Amino acid sequence: MTVLEPRSTETLVSLTIDGRPVTVAAGQTVLDACSAAGVDTPTLCYAENLTPVNACRVCVVEHEGSRTLIPSCSRKAEEGMEIKTNSERVRHSRKMVLEFLGSGVDMSQATQLHSWMEEYGADPSRYGPDAERINEPVKIQDDLYIRDYDKCVLCYKCVEACGDDAQLTFAIAVSGRGFGARISTEYDVTLPDSACVYCGNCVGVCPTGAIQFKTEFDLRQAEQWKPEEQTITQTICSYCGVGCNLEMHVQDNTIVKVTSPSDHSVTHGHLCIKGRFGWTYVQPTINRK
Amino acid sequence: MTDLHLTTDRATQVEMAAIDAAIDACGLDAVVVNEGERLVRGGIHRANERRHGLLPALHALHNVSGWISHGGVNYIAERLGVPPAEGFGVASFYEMFRMEDPGHINDVVHVCVDAACQIAGADGVIVNLQAQGSTVHRSPCLGQCERAPATFTQGNQGRPDFVEADAVAVEGRIIPQQGQPQLRLLRRMGETNPESLDDYVAYGGFKALAEAFRLGAEGVLAELETAALKGRGGAAFPTAVKWRGVLGAGGDQKWVVVNADESEPGTFKDRHIMELDPFAIVEAATIAGFVTGARKGFIYIRGEYPLATRRLQNAIDSARAAGFLGERIAGSSLGFELEIRRGAGAYICGEETALFESLEGFRGEPRQKPPFPTTHGLFKQPTVINNPETLINALQILEHGGAAYSQIGTSGSTGTRLFCLSGHVQVPGLYEAPHGVTLGEIIELAGGAVGNLRTVLLGGAAGSFVGVDMLDLPLTFEDSRARGASLGSGVVKLFNDTTNFPAVVARIAEFFRNESCGQCVPCRIGVVRQHELVIKSAGRSMNGEREILHDIDLAMKDASICGLGHTAATAVLSAIDLGLIGA
To answer: What's the confidence (pLDDT) of residue A36?
Structure first.
C-alpha cells in the first residue's frame, strides 16, 4: 500500500503529529500520517502488503486522551487526533519491546533492529545471562529454505503470507501459548509432509532471518554471505504470462536469492515456487548438493 | 470432502462419532465446496463461519481419546474446513488439551496451585494423588477457593468431567449467608432447587422479564441508567451505555454473550450463580436480547465448571420447554435462543475480545480496541457481553426499579456486590453486601481472619495486595481507585503472617507467565522477565530488580494489547511496596 496523495473526492482527516498538522485520507493509519509528517517510525510486524496485526508494539505512539499507547500501524487516523511519537512514554515502551526481544530472541541478522536498539537505549543484558531464550534448533528439511525459530519474533507475517493475505495455503499457524508460542505446521510435521507449496512468501516477509533461503543460510554458515557485494537485477519471470517482477540477488556471479518488490502491482511482493526457486536452470551446478 | 492437505493420520470410529455428535449439536452440516472451487479460495470464508464448531469438536475428541490425536484433528479439518495447521494451533492454545499421546487412559486430576489452594496444602494433595497412581496436572485457579485445596477431574475414554467436591453432600448452609432477609443477588441460593423452573418462578423468577416487556427496550434502558449499574468484571463499564450501543448499532444480526469464563484467581461468584441460580442467567440474557435486538446468545463457561455447565443446560432446556426461550417467549413476539460453549483452560479468554475469538474457533488472542464489541463483537457483529453477576443485577433493577436500586450502595457504586472470601479467613465463601461496606466489615462478616492478618489480595491476581491499614477502605469503585486499589472481580483473599510470601508472589508471577497468550511482545516476554526477577530476588532485599520491574510494568501497561498485560505486574509491585517480598 503506497501512501497516496488524497484525491479531492476523498474524505480528509486532519490531525497533528508532534504538534505538526497533517492531513491524510480517511482510512489511512496513524503510521501513514507519521510518514506524511516525515516522522520515521520503527515497525517489525507491519508490512505494506499484509494486514496489520499490531503484535510487536514497537510502533506505538501516544494519543492524547488514550489511557494506553496505541499501535500506529493499525489505528486509523481520526479527525483531531493529537499524536506524540517521541515522548518519554513512547520511547520507554519502544525501548522495552526491543530490549525484551533482544533478551530472548537471536536478533543477530535483524540488522535494522540494531540501530533502533541503539537509538532507544535498549540493553537486553540487564536481564542477566540466565534469562530464558527461545532456544530452538534450526529446521533444515529441504533444499529450498530453512526455519530457524531461535530468530523468530512471532510477528505473524509468515502466517499471514501463507494464509489469508497471499497464498491461501495455511500450512503454518501459531501454536502453543505465551513465551512457548511457535510458528508450526500441524503436529510439527516437516515442510515436505505439510501443505507447504514452497512459494517462499514466508521467506519474503520474514524480518529477522528466521525463515531463510537455503542458499543464504549455507553462505552464512560458510561465512561467505556478503550483502554489500551483491547486485540486484530486475527481470520478469519467464514461466507464465502473469508478469511477476523478480529481483535476482547476485553474489560472485551466482544467484543467491529472489525477491519481488512489495509495491509491485502484479506481485505485491509475493511469488510462486517457480519465480521464487525456479532459477537453478540458469546455473545448474552451483550451490546444489 | 475438502481440498485440504492432510497427513495420513486417520481418526478412529469412536473419534469420528464423538466429533460428528459435537458438530451436529452446533447445528452445522457438511462444509460446502462448490464445483470447481477450492476450499481455500472463496470457500474458506464460508468455512470460517463454521469454525465455532471447532472448540466443541476438540472437546469431544479429547474426551474420547485423552489427547488431541492427529487423526482426530484431520477429521475435524475435513468436517469444518479448518486447515489442520490452524486446528492444531487452536488446540495447543488451551491448558485442558493434551497435544501428545499420554500412553494411558487415566482421567486427569487438575489440582489448583494458586494462592488459596497453595496455602491450604495443594502440594500435599498432589503428592498423595501421585502416590495413588493418579495422573495429575498442576492447574491455575479452579474457582473453588472457598473449599481449598481444589481439584477438577477431566474424564477420559468418554467419561464425564467432574468435581469431587460437588458430589459431597453439603451439611447445613450452602452459602454462609443463606436465607438472610437482606440478600438480593443471593436470595435464592440454597433456598430453591436450582434444577427446578417451578421453584424459580415461585421465588420471583421471570417477573423481571414481564416487567421488561411492559417497559419496552427504552424503558429498560432508562431504568438501567437511573440505577447506574456498572459491570462487575473489573472494568466497571456502565451497563446501560453498553446495551444502548448495541441497540443503536447497525446490522440485523446481533448477539448476547454471557462471559462465564470466570478465571481470575480467587473468584468463584459466577460459578455460584450458575450452579445455584441458573435460571436467573437465562432470564437476564433474554432481557439483554430483548433490549438490544439480539435474537441469539451464547454462554461461554470455563471448561473446569462441569456442574455449572450441567445446571445451566438444564435451565436452558427447562426454560425452552416452558416457553421462556425459543419463539414467542412468554406469549410475546420475542424470539430468543441460548447455547452453551465451554472454554478449555485459558485465563485470557475471559477478556471479551479473546472470548469472541475463542468462541469463533480461533486462538483466544485479544483484539486491539477500537472497534468495540458494541459494533464489532462476536463474528464482528454488534454484541452485548456481560458476566453473570452484572446480568442478574439487571433483574434486581427491573424488579424494584432503578431509583430504588440506586439508593443501595454509594452514588458512584450503586447496588450490592458479591465478594469472594478465601485464604486465611474463618468462613470462606461468597458474601453479598452493599457497595461501601468496608474491607474490615466484609472480613468480619466472614468471621474474621485466621491468625494474625498480614495482607489482603484485593481484586484477584490482577488486583493488588493491601495492608491492614486499608481495612477501613469502603469497597466501592471510587474509593478503591482513589487509594490505588481495585475491586476487580470481588476477590478478598486473606493472608496471615505465617504465609510464605515469596512463594505466593512467585506463583502469581508464574500464573501470568503461563496465561499470557503470547500475541504481543510486551506481555509475552515481560511476564517471563518479571517471573525470573521475582524468583531471583526471593528471600533477599531487592537491588536493581525493583527498577527493572517498574520498567516492565510501565511497558506492559502502556503497550500491551489487553488488560492481562496492563495488570500483570500490579500484584507483584504491591507486594514489594508492602514489604511482602524484597524487603
So the answer is: 96
Q: Are residues A28 and A74 in the same domain?
A: yes
Q: Which domain holds residue B144?
A: 108-163
Chain B residues in contact with A171 (beta carbon < 8 A): 5, 83, 85
Query: Between chains, do A93 and B85 touch, taking CB under 8 Å as contact?
Result: no
CATH number at residue B530: 1.20.1440.230
Q: What is the distance between the alpha carbons of residues B499 and A144, in angstroms, rounded to a whole number?
A: 57
Report pLDDT for B321: 97
Q: What is the pLDDT of residue A10?
A: 72
What pLDDT sits at residue B171? 81
- Strands A12-17, B383-386: pairing is unpaired
Name the band, by pLDDT with cuts 50, 70 and 90, for residue A289: very low
Residue B41: its chain A contacts at CB < 8 A? 168
In a domain? residue A92: yes
CB A23 within 8 A of CB A6: yes
Nearest by CB to residue B85, choosing from A96, A177, A186, is A186
Cβ distance B516 to A171 less than 8 Å, yes or no, reads no
Task: Establish if A289 belongs to a structural domain.
Answer: no
Q: Can you give the pLDDT at residue B544?
A: 87
Candidate from A97, A131, A175 with C-beta closest to B89 = A175
The proportion of chain A whose per-residue pLDDT surpasses 70, expressed as a percent, equals 95
3-state secondary structure of B577: helix
Interchain proximity B552–A130, CB inside 8 Å: no
A3 has pLDDT over 60: no
Ranges under pLDDT 50 in chain B: none
Domain that residue A7 falls in = 1-133
- pLDDT confidence of residue A7: 56
A92, A112, A133 - which closes a domain = A133
Task: Choose, out of B54, B514, B525, the residue to mutate when testing the contact with A (most A CBs < 10 Å).
Answer: B525
From chain B, the residues in CB contact with A169 under 8 A are: 40
Question: Residue A5: what pLDDT?
Answer: 58
Q: Flag whether pLDDT at A58 surpasses 50.
A: yes
Q: Which of A97, A131, A185 sits opposite B85 (nearest CB)?
A: A185
Q: Do B87 and A186 touch (CB under 8 A)?
A: yes
Backbone phi, psi, residue B506, to 5° = -60, -35
A75 CB neighbours in chain B (<8 A) are: 368
**What is the pLDDT averaged over residues A162-173?**
94
Band (A285; pLDDT cuts 50, 70, 90): low
- The beta-carbon neighbor of A93 closest among B86, B368, B555 is B555
CATH code of residue A105: 3.10.20.740
Q: Which residues of B touch A58 (CB under 8 A)?
A: 521
- Contact yes or no for A132 and B515 at CB 8 A: no
Q: Of A133, A162, A180, which residue is a domain's last?
A: A133
Which chain B residue lies closest to A153 (C-alpha atoms)?
A: B521
- What's the confidence (pLDDT) of residue A286? 53
The pTM assigned to this predicted structure is: 0.96
Residue to mutate among B529, B531, B534, with most A CBs inside 10 A, is: B529
